[in-house]
Amino acid sequence: MSLVVQKYGGTSVADTEKIKNVARRVVATREKGHQVVVVISALGDTTDRLLELAHSISRRPPARELDMLLSTGEQISVALLSMAIHELGHDAISFTGAQVGLITDSTHTKAKILRVEGGSIEDSLRQGKIVIVAGFQGVTVDNQITTLGRGGSDTTAVALAAALGAEVCEIYTDVDGVFTADPRLVPEARKIPRLSYEEMLEMAATGAKVLQLRSVEFARNYGVVIHVRSSFHEGEGTWIVPAEESMERAIISGVTHELGEAKVTVQDVPDRPGVAASLFRALADANINVDMIIQNVSEDNRTSISFTVMKEDAEKAAQISREVAERLGASGVTVDDGIAKVSLVGAGMKTHPGVAAQMFEALAERGINIEMISTSTIKISCVVRADRVEEAVRAIHSKFGLEKGVVFRE
Amino acid sequence: MSLVVQKYGGTSVADTEKIKNVARRVVATREKGHQVVVVISALGDTTDRLLELAHSISRRPPARELDMLLSTGEQISVALLSMAIHELGHDAISFTGAQVGLITDSTHTKAKILRVEGGSIEDSLRQGKIVIVAGFQGVTVDNQITTLGRGGSDTTAVALAAALGAEVCEIYTDVDGVFTADPRLVPEARKIPRLSYEEMLEMAATGAKVLQLRSVEFARNYGVVIHVRSSFHEGEGTWIVPAEESMERAIISGVTHELGEAKVTVQDVPDRPGVAASLFRALADANINVDMIIQNVSEDNRTSISFTVMKEDAEKAAQISREVAERLGASGVTVDDGIAKVSLVGAGMKTHPGVAAQMFEALAERGINIEMISTSTIKISCVVRADRVEEAVRAIHSKFGLEKGVVFRE
Question: What do you get for the CA distance between the two ends of chain B, in Å?
Answer without folding.
Answer: 41
